[in-house]
Write a sequence for this structure.
């Protein structure tokens, strides 16, 4: 979609009539800040995606999660706590 000079002048004139001369710089500034924030968010999302892919390549078995505490019986939990306490004392 290419805009010629006539279309751009028409758009600026409509904006001038709608918002007035004092609001146009504020509008342009907020548009610029919004665009900058959007680009920053997209960049961060891409970096996170790359980091996840690198992590999967480094450790492909990382998808297996450790069992949740609620899935472990009380006896197994007590046994594990005792074992860790003994290892810590040594």
């Amino acid at each position: 979609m290419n805009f010629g000079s006539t279309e751009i002048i028409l758009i600026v004139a409509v904006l001038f009539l709608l918002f007035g001369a004092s609001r146009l710089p504020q509008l342009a500034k907020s548009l610029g800040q919004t665009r900058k924030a959007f680009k920053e968010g997209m960049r961060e999302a891409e970096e996170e995606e790359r980091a996840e892919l690198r992590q999967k390549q480094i450790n492909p078995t990382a998808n297996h999660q450790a069992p949740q505490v609620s899935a472990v019986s009380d006896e197994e939990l007590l046994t594990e706590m005792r074992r860790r306490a003994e290892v810590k004392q040594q």
